[in-house]
């Protein structure tokens, strides 16, 4: 039997299909389609931003070719096609796609009309300034790193973001058996909500909505009704109606009305919207429009819809709302990965997860900074000891035949503390002591015992450090380190101080990147009644002897002479007329009242 035959293992095809499909489904859910609730990023977004960060493609440096970044991403972190990576970069650079762009693009990155971006060999990119806040303190062991697809690189499992990015920029994706669609929000409002949660972790959804009233889309527009927002924030699922911002202008001379559209709903293609309106006019499904043109330019959006002389602008606009994407529904489905598992989360759940993430990040950063501060203080202690005992140390080094023997001599005996004693006493004996330091080193019995690292630092000491000015600088740096260590220990030892640090950093982010809300939220329902699609005018209703009812505008009747009665329509014969009623003021069918009617018969 061949070696290949020996490696064949019989399996049950049904069980293998189940297992393989489940593995595939979980791979799509965890590794591709759903964002992490902590940083609001999918793996491809995280890999792009990390690759740009490693490349030094910072906001205050020169742009780099998009193709270079795409090559780094697919070569090191994301083993998929280049188009998937470049499409991700393009979306993060489009002002109409992300509320706060994470990539600063130079070149053609598409338009709201659906135009494609230029090829990646033509465009250039760099990180947006706010994107650095997603990766702040990444080098301080604030998050775990995992292997890339071939084990040759390390990538962050999650970003140590200072920004609640999942709410701020939203997310959308389709996985196997589930999907997510989270709208973007205003950064200032979201941070205010996070601060309110920090102050009171028992805050209700209604309390959070006092700070976060609803989504804030990059294309602005108007959200009609609050019920869908409240449902989504409470349950994680809901639906909101987004309506274009339009106004009806009337020409003072001609009296003709014009509809001007300044903002359209989120994710609506402007060119297709205009094509749809033209199609409806051509098919006579929308009447009253005489001209349609797009006057948008670099100063903003402007869609002009000219209304016919005998049409009413508001009625035409209501018809467009009901039949085009001037009004759309946005289904909210707040699904994200929480502890590696997909979960439907409400507003409070998302904010709570972000605050917990910040607590962990700041704690890990503080531990890292404490370790580095203690390591530096450990070296400064040695230099201070050397300066306090400069003459015997120089003599010892001069007598040593080799550097190794000089190092051994420095370690072999205790040294006077000098100025270090008073500073250590104020800070505490163990405040600046590294955790890895063995008990026999450092301060013991009123004297100081050097480690190998300290002895090497003394041997590497430059002669200029022996001057009085350098001596003072060294002692000042040591004092600052002791103060920093004391503060870091305070943060680690006090939950209140830890949350205060988190609050201060959030307030700084709000100050730097916060802006005004773009999307207006109205309390009105988005439902359009049939009466909204009918122009208001004086009408006449005729009831025949046979029981037939006829509805006609009053303008169809001839003008009355003095003292005369209403002339009957020529189309009716007198023998069929029973009674005629008309309403002398504008009305709609729902507002018609027999009490206000004038009848004759």
TrEMBL record:
Superkingdom: Bacteria
Gene Ontology MF annotations: ATP binding; DNA binding; DNA topoisomerase type II (double strand cut, ATP-hydrolyzing) activity
Keywords carried by this UniProt record: DNA-binding, Isomerase, Topoisomerase
Domain Topo IIA-type catalytic: 34-533
Catalytic activity: ATP-dependent breakage, passage and rejoining of double-stranded DNA
EC number in record: 5.6.2.2
Active site: 122 (o-(5'-phospho-dna)-tyrosine intermediate)
GO cellular component: cytoplasm; DNA topoisomerase type II (double strand cut, ATP-hydrolyzing) complex
GO biological process per UniProt: DNA topological change
Signal peptide: none
InterPro entries from the UniProt entry: Gyrase/topoIV_suA_C, Topo_IIA-like_dom_sf, Topo_IIA_A/C_ab, Topo_IIA_A_a_sf, Topo_IIA_dom_A, Type_II_DNA_Topoisomerases
PROSITE patterns: TOPO_IIA
UniProt xrefs under Gene3D superfamilies: 3.30.1360.40, DNA gyrase/topoisomerase IV, subunit A, C-terminal (2.120.10.90), Topoisomerase II, domain 5 (3.90.199.10), Topoisomerase, domain 3 (1.10.268.10)
SMART domains: TOP4c
NCBIfam families reported for this sequence: gyrA, PRK05560.1, PRK05561.1
Family per record: Belongs to the type II topoisomerase GyrA/ParC subunit family.
Full protein name: DNA topoisomerase (ATP-hydrolyzing)
């Amino acid at each position: 039997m061949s070696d290949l035959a020996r490696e064949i293992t019989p399996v049950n095809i049904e069980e293998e299909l189940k297992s393989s499909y489940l593995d595939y489904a979980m791979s799509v859910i965890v590794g591709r389609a759903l964002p992490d609730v902590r940083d609001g990023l999918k793996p491809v977004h995280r890999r792009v931003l990390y690759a740009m960060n490693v490349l030094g493609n910072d906001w205050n440096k020169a742009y780099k070719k998009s193709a270079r970044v795409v090559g780094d991403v697919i070569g090191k972190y994301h083993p998929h096609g280049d188009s998937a990576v470049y499409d991700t970069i393009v979306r993060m650079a489009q002002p109409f796609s992300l509320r706060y762009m994470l990539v600063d693009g130079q070149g053609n990155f598409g338009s709201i009309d659906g135009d494609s971006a230029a090829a990646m060999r033509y465009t250039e990119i760099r990180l947006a300034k706010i994107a650095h806040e997603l990766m702040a303190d990444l080098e301080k062991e604030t998050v775990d790193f995992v292997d890339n697809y071939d084990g040759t690189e390390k990538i962050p499992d999650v970003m140590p973001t200072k920004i609640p990015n999942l709410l701020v920029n939203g997310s959308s994706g389709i996985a196997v058996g589930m999907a997510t669609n989270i709208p973007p929000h205003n950064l200032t409002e979201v941070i205010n909500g996070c601060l309110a949660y920090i102050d009171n972790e028992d805050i209700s959804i209604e309390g959070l909505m006092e700070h976060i009233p609803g989504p804030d889309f990059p294309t602005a527009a108007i959200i009609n009704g609050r019920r869908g927002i409240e449902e989504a924030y409470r349950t994680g699922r809901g639906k909101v109606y987004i309506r274009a911002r339009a106004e009806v202008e009337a020409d003072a001379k001609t009296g003709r009305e014009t509809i001007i559209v300044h903002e359209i709903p989120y994710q609506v293609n402007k060119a297709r919207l205009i094509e749809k309106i033209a199609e409806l006019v051509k098919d006579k499904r929308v009447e009253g429009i005489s001209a349609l043109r797009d006057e948008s330019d670099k100063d903003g959006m402007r869609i002009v819809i000219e209304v016919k002389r005998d049409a009413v602008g508001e009625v035409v606009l209501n018809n467009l709302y009901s039949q085009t994407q001037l009004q759309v529904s946005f289904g909210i489905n707040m699904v994200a990965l929480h502890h590696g598992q997909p979960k439907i989360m409400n507003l409070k759940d998302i904010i709570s997860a972000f605050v917990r993430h910040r607590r962990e990040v700041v704690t890990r950063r503080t531990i890292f900074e404490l370790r580095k501060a203690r390591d530096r203080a450990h070296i400064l202690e040695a230099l201070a000891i050397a300066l306090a005992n400069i003459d015997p140390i120089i003599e010892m080094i001069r007598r040593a035949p080799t550097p190794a023997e000089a190092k051994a001599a420095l370690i072999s005996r205790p040294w006077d503390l000098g100025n270090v004693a008073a500073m250590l006493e104020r800070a505490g004996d163990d405040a600046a002591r590294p955790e890895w330091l063995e008990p026999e080193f450092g301060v013991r019995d009123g004297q100081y015992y050097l480690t190998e690292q300290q002895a090497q630092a003394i041997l590497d000491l430059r002669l200029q450090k022996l001057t009085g000015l350098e001596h003072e600088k060294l002692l000042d740096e040591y004092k600052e380190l002791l103060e920093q260590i004391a503060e870091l220990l305070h943060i680690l030892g006090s939950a209140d101080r830890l949350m205060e640090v988190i609050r201060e950093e959030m307030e700084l982010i709000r100050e730097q990147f916060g802006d005004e809300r773009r999307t207006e939220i109205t309390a009105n329902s988005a439902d359009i009644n049939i009466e909204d699609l009918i122009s208001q005018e004086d009408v006449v209703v005729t009831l025949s002897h046979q029981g037939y009812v006829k509805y006609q505008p009053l303008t169809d009747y001839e003008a009355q002479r003095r003292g005369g009665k209403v002339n009957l329509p020529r189309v009716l014969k007198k023998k069929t007329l029973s009674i005629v009623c008309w309403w002398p003021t504008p009305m709609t069918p729902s507002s018609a009242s027999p009490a206000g009617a004038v009848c004759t018969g």
